[in-house]
Amino acid sequence: MTTAPLTTPRSRRGFQNSRRHLVFLIPAAAFMAAFAVYPLLQLAWMSVHDVTQATLNVPGWEFVGLENFIRGFTAGESAAAVNRTLVVVAVVTTAGMLLGFVAAIAMRTSGWWSAALLALMVFVWALPPVVNGSVWKFLLAERGLFNTVLGALGLDTLPFLYDPQWALISVASVAAFAVIPFNALVFRAALMAIPPEVFEAAAVDGASKFQEIRFIMVPAVRGTTLVLFVLTVVYGFRSFDYIYVMTFGGPGTATATLPFLGYLQAFNRYDYGLGSATSFLAVVGVLALAGAYAWTIRREERT
């Protein structure tokens, strides 16, 4: 008789609080629906219709089903773009994770050079991609700094941006260079959370620097590594700005990853249906990676 009046107001208060919290979500939900969900639905709609420059403003596009997707793969463009995207993701993820962790170890210590490296990382991280890509475009040009140094050493110059294989590796390397500061700063924050007493105990036991890294630092950043790994893969998968600035997908389509190929098909060849189909494949990939990221975060919160 006495428990019902005590629990009912509390549960009602909790329900009212949850409804009040939902009210604060309405502006963000409306913004996301207008600027994220609706464009994605429009992209999916265009991918299954015949939309070109001639029919773009004509009401009632012709429904073609999966023809745009099939056309992309039968022409060989989509499959090649997927392979190039995987190469970029592999280079960006491997270099970004390893070099980011090494830089974080260097920045964990105190000293002027550690502070200088931290300032350099923040500077590179803050550079706009257009500026960063333009600088690397000049450095890797036929008569840029790198080829000038190679020539001064008596070596043959390298076609960093003019050979299909070299161009893809160059663009992927620059994208990896750009993500290293972010990974290093996140790794550094995780390393700084390790109590100093742990390193003091390791020093008393005679542990070497390599053993400190292997048995203290690596296990301590395991959760951070999982989250950063997913974020770095997403970053490499959706790489666009450095390709646009440095090679514009060339030579030919040698550096056109899946997102950039969709851009070329839609806004360079004006085949909006085919471009939408290619871009939709990229969206599916990003959504899968976003799901993996959410699953990783939830798993880390439970552990």
UniProtKB/TrEMBL annotation:
InterPro entries: ABC_transporter_permease, MetI-like, MetI-like_sf. CDD domains: TM_PBP2. GO terms for cellular component: plasma membrane. Keywords: Cell membrane, Membrane, Sugar transport, Transmembrane, Transmembrane helix, Transport. This is Multiple sugar transport system permease protein. Belongs to the binding-protein-dependent transport system permease family. PANTHER family: ABC TRANSPORTER PERMEASE PROTEIN (PTHR30193), INNER MEMBRANE ABC TRANSPORTER PERMEASE PROTEIN YCJO (PTHR30193:SF37). PROSITE patterns: ABC_TM1 (PS50928). Pfam families: BPD_transp_1.
